[in-house]
Structures
1.
Amino acid sequence: MKRLAKTIALTLLKIVVVFYTIFPFYWAIVSSFKSGAALFSVDFFPAIDLTNYRDLLSNGNFLRNILNSAIVAVSVVTLSLVFAITSAYALGKMKFRGRGIVLAGILGASMFPQIVVLSGLFGTIRWLGLYNSLGSLVLSYMIFSLPFTVWVMTSFIRQIPSELEDAARMDGCSTWAMIWQIYFPLLAPALASTGLLAFIASWNEFLFALTFTLSDTVRTVPVGLALISGSSRFELPFGTIMAASVIVTVPLILLVLIFQRRIVSGLTAGAVK
Amino acid sequence: MCINCATSQFFYITLPLLWPTLAVAILFRLLDAVRMFDLAYVLSSKSRETATISIYARQQLVDFQDVGYGSAVAMLVFLMISLVAAVYVQITKIRLISE
């Protein structure tokens, strides 16, 4: 009897948690099939009407925004991972004075609120002539993605036994070849999970994208989505916004499902997240 | 011996073992929450009642073009956050960097 009560309570708790996390997304999908006044009626299983999706996918600006987001996120992830592997090797496997200070600095930088660097970064980007271009976003996203990837990769590389390195040294392996031929393949699962988390962070980033871009053609998807407006200023086209949110979320869900197992091991291996 | 084994197990074994990781996670989530920007900005735009410190600073910086004042706000946020982080690390005695 007691056991039954326990099972029921536990199941109820699970249902509450799942409902709390899934329902907003479900409601976004449901709302994306509606338009006009129908949006404000409560209807849990509306007829599937893909008008909003058709409008969005024939809208050049929206597709352009998705492409921009993809370009920026892929560049940020690639650059971060290359720098992260090399610096993780230095920080995790080499002994040098001030290593603790460098690590503390990296950790401190990953706690930095974005708003603190905004004004300085704005000046820098203007000076570099990158304002209103995708380069400004790649540059600024590296600020938060690099400390995170370096930190996680450092804790991963420490778990790899140094005997491998000693053996490779005996065979005359150079440091550069060591990084790419010994550590890179061993770190591949860690790279996948860290890269994915960095990808999600860049894909979702809003503050920098809002501040450093101005025209429709260089906007990323979160900003483009926030600025979707209706035919009059008193109408918010929720149906379109919801459809856009669903389209933007689907790639992330697919990526997470593909790499699921690796993300979980990645999350527990780094002490940070 | 043990009246409620599962509860004791959780509080005397699981939680202490989990604590170092949990403490770091709490610190990071806390700092993330302080600098929250996008949700409040998108959901209620510039309503003063829901503006977080990040929204306020950006408004001064970008919308009002008051770079000096906006940067001062940003620096205050930075001081606030470093103070919270420093005190937190001292209190919880977490070791962030293992040599």
2.
Amino acid sequence: MKLTIVTYRDIFLWSERYKENGQPAAALVRLSPKDLADLGIAAGEKLKLTNEEGSIVVDVLAEPKCPSGYGYMPVSPLVNRLTTCRHGKLPNFKHIEVKAEALES
Amino acid sequence: MSAGEMVCTACSCLCDDIEIEIENGRIVSMEKACRKGTAFFFGSENERLRTVHLVDGKQVDTDQALAAAAGLLSRARRPLVFGMDNASLEAQRQGIELARMLGAVLDDSSSFCQGKLTHDILTGTLPSCTFDQIHDSDLIIYWGSNPHNAQPRHLSRFSLYAHRKYHEMGATRYVTMAVVDVRESETAGAGVAHRFFRILPGEDSNFIAAIIEGIKGNPVRKDASGFLKLLKQSRHCVIFAGLGLTYSLDNDFSLFYEMLKHLGGWMKTFVIPMSGHYNVRGFNYSLYNATGCVNKVNFAGGAVSHGDEFSLLEQVKNRAADCLLIVGADPFSSLPISVLKHLDGVPLVTLDPFRTATTEASSVVLGVSLTGLESGGTAMRMDGTTVTLMPAKWTDKQSDVQILERLKELLRP
């Protein structure tokens, strides 16, 4: 399934940077229940997100108000494995096109 | 034990009412700070999170670190200075002079954040106001921003809940708060915003175009019609423009400005960029005063030139710089890895109070004091107000101002 990832700021993730051995929950994506059903996975399971820049594995959360075809991820170095910046443009932090695949649990 | 008030430098709100108690050189309590502020300052007490002076990963003294930094910068043919958004106005002035002395390219995060809006405010193109003037407003709009996570005390200290005419009971309220966003964030939902206009990602320009059509009297989509109705009830509106808006418009605010121009027919509208780093507005101000530009400048050949090719992103992608001096910034945590990979083999000299992904990648690290807690100065809040920072605790670390001054002395021709 094709998804467009939109990043957002997460205060908990920011705060974890200032803790030793903090466990920032950067590896998560929030999807609509419809997209979860179409992917055949449940909240808490893992999803692989891939594009030309790289590939990451994230936990899935259900967000009822997320529009289908989109996913929300917190800003972090992890999601920056998928981001890019075309000439003369801003980085695509708010519009990251990926292929989403459910991982075997 | 000592107790007093300090200014928080964890974000560009620069909250100046933080109550702090210090005992035996350690913070024992901190009142009124948000989650960001407390994490930032209590985190600074953990020496394992702090920087020491390093050259190629080995701890050295200040003189050795400065000599190594000066050596790299003096040998560079195309040096680039980046950052200073987390540095005082005094450090920024030193950094700008240093960049000029080196003939370097100079840029900060505003080139991929809110620099365009701040430039237009400084040049008088875009009407803006201070936090104090928010009390005259009857409509507050957070557009593409979620202060709950990015500037946590913004609502309670400066905007809605601090508004002199705010009534918790909506029936009698004088001031309305609306949110335009792609996500029902904590600011947009949970009973915080009075009105929430949800748009699809990347749809801001379509939404703005529809508002303009509505102003002209043409039929428009339902959400734009509702937004316009809200605007028509207002006489004084403050828009807090967030990165969501900037990125959706890809830094092209022409349609947004056209909308503001139309709104000027019946109401006053002011825009305040929701800046992140505590002194990014100050950097734009300092550089504008020095060069007439807010970012993306080149001092090569003793002149000042300006252009998109001098942004950090373009410089790195084009492998244009052969040495980077990074001051109070962490691009390795915030930028695409597909861009950063072009820095392989490029020596980095970094000044920062904290260990970061960028200090880990640096050839030379200069550990400095934490401005606001351990050293003082002045900084500019996101609304353009200058705030004085007074150190609350002693440190043996030198400030970024002192380090940059010494670096300048070493590099002076």
